[in-house]
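Colleagues,

For the teaching module next term, I've prepared a clean inverse folding example: a structure given as tokens, and then the sequence designed for it. I'd like students to try predicting residues themselves before seeing the answer, so please don't circulate the second half yet.
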């Protein structure tokens, strides 16, 4: 009898479990039937038909204009080969329109090559493009300026010579590539400032015409500054982000004045994939902040000399500090 009772108990238990499992499966089926799954696109990198690097961005007339250097190094060439800059535009940060190549190093008769990092800023109906190039007669990198009536060009040399040459900063560092990565910010009082540098971070005022320095060159002391300064402002705070150490992360400092003193706040972005450089632009567009950067994200040949521009959201803490960027494959949806 005990054995028979055990058999019956097992059968009854199995029946209950079977019914519960069936009900559960039916319930799952019902839930699945009533649940819609949102499709997520892989939007990073945002440019996939060519390599792009050192992004900068400008907001003008409800449109974002993205500027980047064109990485053209062949697969077996392990250094930078860059001869031109690219420009794209978007009204939603998702769909990007490519425009004709707006500027090449050959547009500067005094330059020898190397279309390195650059930035465009608008003033008085003109658009000024501050670029890094190799100088043709003064050894080392230099900063030139191009100008156009439209953010997509065509641009032409605005000065006929370099604004900054390597021999202007030899008292700060003896390397030949310290005068790179220009970024420009126009403050609320109308004063324009130029920041730039590698291993040393420089700044100077610009005259109203945007093509001449106004006063001496200053330096900013920042922890482990490598290159790629970028200035932006939110509320009462100025932010100076930059490439930190090498391989590069992105770090930042904050100040109540664009001329400092600057207080270091920490890491903003980690190593950018399989790229040993990390170059950022930060903009606000339609009440959302964005962090624009590059990685070596196009495979199989992406890497430190064949980079690709990506975009993710940027967020702030209540005290004004920036939250660490989360790099994603999905990007902006």
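(Answer key — instructors only)
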């Amino acid at each position: 009898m005990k054995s028979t009772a055990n058999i019956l108990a097992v059968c009854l238990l199995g029946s209950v479990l079977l019914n519960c499992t069936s009900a559960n499966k039916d319930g799952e089926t019902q839930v699945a039937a009533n649940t819609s799954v949102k499709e997520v696109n892989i939007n990073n990198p945002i440019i996939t038909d060519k390599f792009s690097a050192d992004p900068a961005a400008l907001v003008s007339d409800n449109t974002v204009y993205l500027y980047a250097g064109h990485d053209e190094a062949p697969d077996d060439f392990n250094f930078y080969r860059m001869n031109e800059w690219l420009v794209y535009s978007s009204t939603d940060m998702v769909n990007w329109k490519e425009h004709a190549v707006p500027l090449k190093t050959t547009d500067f008769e005094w330059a020898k090559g190397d279309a390195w990092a650059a930035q465009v800023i608008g003033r008085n109906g003109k658009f000024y493009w501050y670029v890094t190039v190799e100088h043709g007669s003064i050894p080392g990198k230099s900063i030139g300026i191009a100008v156009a009536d439209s953010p997509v060009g065509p641009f032409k040399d605005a000065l006929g010579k370099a604004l900054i040459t390597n021999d202007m900063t030899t008292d700060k560092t003896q390397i030949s590539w310290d005068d790179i990565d220009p970024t420009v910010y126009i403050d609320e009082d109308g004063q324009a400032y130029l920041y730039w540098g590698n291993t040393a971070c420089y700044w100077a005022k610009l005259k109203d015409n945007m093509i001449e320095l106004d006063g001496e060159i200053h330096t900013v002391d920042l922890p482990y500054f490598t290159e790629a300064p970028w200035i932006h402002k939110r509320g009462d705070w100025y932010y100076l982000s930059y490439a930190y150490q090498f391989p590069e992360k992105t770090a930042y400092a904050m100040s109540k004045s664009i001329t400092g003193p600057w207080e270091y706040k920490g890491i903003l972005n980690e190593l950018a994939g399989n790229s040993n450089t990390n170059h950022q632009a930060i903009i606000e567009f339609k009440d959302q902040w964005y962090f624009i950067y590059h990685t070596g994200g196009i495979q199989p040949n992406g890497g430190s000399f064949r980079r690709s521009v990506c975009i993710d959201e940027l967020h702030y803490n209540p005290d004004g500090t920036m939250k660490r960027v989360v790099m994603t494959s999905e990007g902006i949806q």
